[in-house]
Design brief:
Strand order of the largest sheet: 2-1-3-4-6-5-10
Helix content: 25-40%
Strand content: 15-25%
CATH topology of the largest domain: Rossmann fold
Number of strands: 12
Structural class: alpha/beta
CATH architecture of the largest domain: 3-Layer(aba) Sandwich
């Protein structure tokens, strides 16, 4: 997704209000953007707190800054600057975190972003965008270029199954229809789930939805989704994020406000490090029951 992000930003780099800051990252990926943006492409160095404060200052003077780093370096280290400099003043700063969830695998917990959008959405005016597929990135970038508030863009690896047609971008999209439970997934891991559950018999096949924009507000939940939740009586939320502050908690709260909680609610989320070991993203997903095999096993049990 990082390559698609760069291509999308290149098309906007001629805008004199556009400025891009990187925390000394993006080698062999962001050079086309650097070439087009020129002096409005700033390597802020390994100094994330300063980078965010500079971005906020640029926003105050009329620029529309983007700040980029590995996800935990972007939201955790400079959290105070995001809170005080960006969000309290509602600056149009776009935070781009590469490698959401367990994406950085064996590099360990310091490089994993498991509580990112939950922590950031506690702050004033913040919104989060979690593209599920590479094709989602250009329309999200177009949206963010016009977005006048702080935003967090969480990038991952596109996992769209081969031969499947990804529907046009929308915050809520139904990918699959069936007569089984209703599943809502956030981010790229929906791709592997989509490919696996599509081959189930119709009686077990879920109504599979993907969500790409947060927070969840009760009045913005699609009526088709609510109807399917009520008909199936079973809802599963799957996200590569801890339970606290995640989409599962947000959705449960929204459904409670609407009086629409199903009889059965399951939240599959990041459980941090069940075995105490670090491994690949696939390894951690399996430990947490976020892999497609675990989802299929629950649907067919």
């Amino acid at each position: 997704m990082r390559i698609v992000l760069c291509q999308s930003l290149v098309s906007h780099a001629a805008d004199p209000e556009f400025v891009f800051l990187t925390g000394d990252l993006g080698f062999m990926a962001l050079e086309p953007l650097q070439a087009v943006a020129g002096p409005r492409f700033i390597n802020a160095g390994i100094a994330e707190q300063n980078m965010i404060s500079v971005a906020a200052g640029l926003g105050w003077t009329g620029f529309r800054p983007w700040a980029y780093s590995i996800a935990p370096f972007l939201y955790a280290r400079p959290y105070e600057q995001i809170r005080n400099d960006v969000c309290m003043h509602d600056m149009p700063v776009k935070l781009v975190g590469n490698g959401g969830g367990y994406a950085y695998g064996v590099m360990g917990g310091t490089h994993h972003a498991l509580e990112d959008y939950g922590a950031l959405l506690c702050l004033d005016h913040m919104h989060a965008f979690v593209p599920a597929f590479a094709a989602d990135v250009p329309p999200i970038v177009d949206c963010l270029m016009r977005f006048n508030h702080p935003a967090y863009l969480r990038l991952g690896r596109c996992e769209a199954p081969n031969g499947f047609q990804v529907p046009g971008y929308a915050p809520w999209r139904q990918l699959l229809a069936g007569n089984g439970p209703t599943i809502l997934s956030v981010g790229p891991l929906v791709g592997s789930i989509w490919g696996a559950v599509s081959f189930l018999p119709e009686s077990q096949r879920p109504n599979l939805w993907v969500l790409t924009e947060l927070p969840i507000r009760a009045g913005e939940i699609p009526q088709d989704f609510l109807r399917q939740v009520q008909q199936s009586g079973t809802l599963m939320v799957v996200e590569e994020h801890v339970a606290h502050g995640g989409a599962g908690q947000m959705l449960a709260h929204a459904l409670g406000l609407l009086g629409a909680m199903p009889a059965r609610f399951t939240h599959r989320c990041a459980l941090r490090y069940c075995s105490g070991y670090y491994g690949s993203q696939k390894f951690h997903r399996q430990e947490c029951g976020l892999d497609s095999e675990s989802i299929v096993a629950e649907l067919t049990s």
